[in-house]
Amino acid sequence: MAKLELTFFSQALEMNTTVSVLLPDKLEKNERLRPFYVLHGYNGDHQDWSRFTSIERYMWAYRACVIMPSGFNAYYTDHQVGLAYETYFMKELVPYMESVLPLLKEAYILGLSMGGYGAMKFALGHPKKFIKAVSLSGVMNPDFIRSLPWMSHRLPVFDKIFGKQVSGKNDLRHLVLKDLKSGKLPKLMFTCGTDDFLVEDNRAFKKFLDEHQVDHRFIFDSGEHSWEYWDRNLQKALPFLFDK
């Protein structure tokens, strides 16, 4: 595949931001590719997926454009105090990618950990744009992170991002109920390792989906919060996304 690295200025973030892109080596005349947004986790950047997984090799089997943005530690959210990341993603990044690359309008999205939350937040918040979404070891409720004693150092940061409690468009449960009411839901897949510190957060979210009869696929298998797990489950997610 061809690999591009694009850097452009974001008005919403008030800084330069970088995106890594994978494209098939050859494009057919007038071909338009499925945009596939892939989000990294906390402390990561746009290079993570290419550095720590074999995503490029796995994508040889599919015709798609893989778009891997830097998400900083922003939780893919417009902060109460700080970055306007969701505005950047939806109002700047997505339109920019569609203007410079031969892309279809409807997209797929996948993320790990913080990026799993971001993938679900964008897909549930914009189901006409993101028609399929996958979370690998995702944060299903950022308030669950607040409850972990060893995460107490992140509390001031979370207060600036979400306020004192996650609510509204930052609450995945709220977005699910909103989509159910409108009759428009993306196709959803989740995985989480049984030794992952987020497994109870994921089990609680699965229970919520089951109670509201939301169609989804949830895999709980052996593994920790690690790149070995995410590389392995990326291989399970791609057939779900690309129908192979």
TrEMBL record:
Coiled coil: none
Signal sequence bounds: none
Entry-linked InterPro entries: AB_hydrolase_fold, Esterase-like, Mycobacterial_A85_antigen
Name of the protein in question: Esterase family protein
